[in-house]
Design a protein that fits this description.
The complex is a heterodimer of chains A (444) and B (322). Chain A is α/β, with parallel strands linked by helices. Chain A contains 19 helices and twelve strands. Chain B is globular, with a radius of gyration of 29 Å. The chains are: A alpha/beta (444), B mainly alpha (322).
Chain lengths: 444, 322
């Protein structure tokens, strides 16, 4: 509409909408029943990983036009390989251009703190309205008391295993301790059905195994202050020695070259009997029941069981689950729109649809979602993910999840300590190597 | 009409007369400009200099500056001197990457040269389907590296390797070969893939060199009683040496700074055992965000490549002198 065509009524309508948005944000948009007056052609670009539940990405793509209509701007999602997220973030920050919102895994907001917008005004109300965030997000998304990313969910892990194969060797329930698990794995491997575990350079499965495994035996990369390297301990050495034997006796030794997708494929192909993974193995097997079958030709999903946690070690039973967040980049020219979008994304109606599609693969970042009616509908093996987010620790445990802890993770030091040992390096030497590398990060 | 050029504001007829004259004058002036060698050289070189400056010199200078600073993602840079270089040198993963890069380059170049030479000699002969073989030989070179490496990754897959399956079905093996899950195996697999990809470049260039060799020389050598090996060693090789040196040097430069192949095939694993300088620099600089340290690691390639180029230029100059 040109200036001559703008009458008083229209002016009041437009300015009223704009004022509503400025003062009340997404609530204002809803109240005004009209998209806000963003500059014509404004685009909001969001980069996320390619989800292990393909339908989750489909749902977000489906929601994009709805968000575009509600916000009066073009919302576009881009999905990239999770292992390429960090390089993309670095390139975007250094060039000062790129996506307006980028998905942050783990405690990455700590590493990129200087380049992220303080979005406490978005995160706090969402947390308050939805029963509060799980504790882990205070470590991962909050830096210096400010929320630098809005928590979006947690990817819980569990040990997926073949019920019938465990039964065949007389095991009716999942082993409680690592020693028991080793014995079970030994028998399974002897039958050509080893345990599968990724121990390569990949963002998810290798660290979600290696860190809790280390903690189970009383090891830790640093002490509680997060400043002193504490890896060279009796507990760590014990854990490394145990894994050397466990790997040889019970595991598919090809796991050293696996990324996060290999164990899913190996499990679906009937090559492994158990593996630590998110709910994706079960969900994909069920959704593709005509394709993914067991050796008898029956749908494989019927034979999949989940153990909520890996077995217990001498020091306890721990978990490390991927935290998912969305951060607004400081270089973005659409910061306000980005915040409005995140508010829109976390509205119950919108988030709920995405949450339901996930069926427990990604659970909520706030406690409210534990009570969602979806849990009454999902299968029993998926119920273990309902409260998964309560259990997880973060990198750097028992110290704070600092940027240095992220650096250690990104360099795969804990993962490689185990990988070196299972390839033949003496346990003490592998731990010493890790100590040297960690000291360069924490004390260098 | 004293000044037809200045008469533009006059009638149409006067303009019609004036324009050709004006054009001729301008053309002559332009020709004079072209005859000025300095100006012509400047005009021809400027686009190249600008392109080189923008895409080679500027990133290079920035890389040097980054390597001398403590810059990390989103943080300002402060000058730290050679600290990053010292840190890299004391880093066990860096030393592994440096060693891997040397081994990878050395063996891949040897294999590419030997197999490329062999292939070139075969293709230099006449046989049925020669054209088809020559064209198909170029396939590994034409297919994008990322794509072909993905195919190789599937062939070496720890669980679904078609090579393991074939060997197992043939009764050659009883357990899977650890193509990518054993550090040593993985590096040799990478060397094999690099050889497969780079061999056509050697073969086609050496083939071009072989075709410039006068067949009379071989005939004369045969008449003198030289067998195949002697003809190769005393006739082919000396004449092929200049081309071979250039190809080997190009290959060393490309292989030493290789990135895509390792990034896709192994990601530097298992346990850093296949990291090359380029992939490790990427992991530290781009993935971890320690841009200064990453730049220092990648700059370690410079002296090695500088030496290679220097040796090549020296050799070529010597040949020109001879």
């Amino acid at each position: 509409m040109d200036a001559q065509g703008m009458n008083r009524r229209h002016f009041l309508k437009v300015s009223g909408t704009a004022a509503a948005v400025l003062t009340t944000g997404i609530e204002g948009i809803v109240a005004a029943r009209r998209a806000p007056a963003w500059a014509q052609g404004t685009k909001l670009h969001i980069v996320r990983w390619v989800d292990f539940i393909p339908e989750a990405d489909v749902e977000l793509k489906r929601q994009a036009p709805e968000a575009s209509k509600a916000l009066g701007a073009e919302i576009t999602f881009e999905f990239i390989n999770a292992n390429d997220l960090q390089p993309r973030i670095t390139a975007a920050i250094q060039s000062g251009s790129g996506a307006d919102i980028i998905q942050m895994l783990w405690n990455w907001p700590q590493l990129y703190a200087n380049s992220l917008v303080d979005i406490s005004d978005v995160a706090e109300p969402i947390g308050k309205a939805q029963g509060g965030y799980y504790d882990v997000f205070s470590s991962t998304a909050k830096v210096g008391g400010k929320w630098l990313a809005v928590p979006h969910g947690t990817g819980g892990n569990a040990v997926a295993y073949r019920r019938s194969w465990f039964n065949e060797i007389g095991v009716k329930e999942f082993p409680k301790t690592w020693d028991e698990y080793r014995e079970v794995g030994k028998k399974l491997k002897a039958k050509g059905k080893p345990i599968g575990q990724a121990l390569g350079h990949s963002f998810g499965d290798p660290p979600t195994f290696a860190y809790p495994f280390l903690w189970d035996f009383g090891g830790a990369e640093v002490d509680a202050t997060g400043k002193k390297v504490a890896i060279n301990s009796k507990g760590t050495i014990e854990s490394v020695k145990f894994l050397q034997a466990f790997w040889k006796d019970a595991c598919d030794e090809g796991g050293l070259a696996w990324d996060d997708t290999n164990n899913n494929r190996a499990f679906h192909a009937g090559e492994i009997s158990a593996t630590l993974n998110g709910a994706s193995i079960y969900i994909v097997a069920k959704r593709q029941k005509d394709k993914i079958k067991d050796e008898k030709g029956e749908p494989l999903w019927q034979d999949i069981e989940h153990a909520a946690l890996m077995p217990k070690g001498p020091a306890g039973q721990f978990a490390l689950y991927a935290a998912f967040q969305h951060a607004v980049m400081k270089y973005s020219k659409n910061q306000k729109l980005a915040k409005e979008f995140l508010k829109w994304l976390h509205q119950d109606a919108n988030y709920g649809k995405w949450f339901e599609v996930n069926e427990g693969y990604s659970v909520g970042a706030t406690k409210k979602w534990e009570d969602h009616p979806m849990w009454a509908k999902v299968d029993k093996p998926l119920q273990v993910f309902r409260q998964a987010a309560r259990l997880t620790r973060a990198f750097g445990h028992p110290g704070p999840a600092t940027a240095k802890a992220t650096e250690a993770y990104t360099k795969y030091i804990i993962v490689d300590m185990y990988a070196k040992a299972v390839q033949g390096m003496k346990a003490e030497d592998a731990v010493k190597w890790a100590e040297g590398e960690l000291k360069k990060i924490y004390e260098g | 009409m004293k000044n037809p050029i200045a008469g533009g504001a006059g009638s149409a007829a006067r303009v019609e007369v004036a324009l050709p004259h004006s054009g001729a004058v301008r053309r002559r002036a332009f020709e004079r400009l072209l005859e000025n060698e300095r100006l012509l050289a400047f005009a021809l070189l400027t686009p190249t200099v600008v392109l080189l400056g923008a895409f080679i010199a500027y990133p290079f200078v920035m890389g040097v500056w980054f390597s001398l600073s403590d810059i990390s993602v989103g943080q300002p840079a402060h000058f730290v001197g050679l600290k990053n270089f010292v840190k890299a040198w004391n880093d066990s993963i860096f030393r592994t990457a440096f060693w891997n890069t040397t081994v990878y380059t050395f063996w891949a170049t040897i294999f590419k040269l030997a197999l490329g030479m062999w292939l070139a000699i075969i293709l230099n002969r006449h046989f049925r389907g020669k054209r088809l073989v020559r064209a198909s030989m170029l396939l590994p070179f034409i297919i994008p590296t990322v794509l072909s490496t993905f195919a190789w990754r599937w062939m070496f897959d720890p669980t679904f390797s078609v090579l393991n399956w074939t060997l197992y079905k043939m009764g050659v093996i009883v357990t899977k070969l650890p193509f990518l899950s054993n550090g040593d195996w993985a590096l040799w697999c990478a060397i094999a893939v690099n050889t497969w990809r780079g061999m056509p470049f050697f073969a086609i260039t050496l083939l071009a060199g072989l075709q410039t060799i006068n067949t009379d020389l071989h005939e004369a050598a045969s008449l003198d009683g030289a067998n195949g090996w002697k003809r190769f060693w005393h006739v082919t090789w000396p004449l092929l040496k200049p081309v071979t040196v250039v190809v080997v040097v190009f290959s060393i430069i490309q292989t030493f700074s290789d990135f895509q192949l390792i990034y896709v095939l192994t990601g530097g694993g298992p346990a850093n055992s296949t990291h090359l300088l380029a992939t490790y620099a990427y992991q530290i600089g781009v993935a971890t965000g320690l841009l200064g340290e990453g730049a220092a690691i990648s700059l370690f390639m410079l002296p090695v490549l500088f030496l290679v180029v220097w040796a090549q230029l020296r050799y070529l100059r010597k040949l020109e002198g001879a």
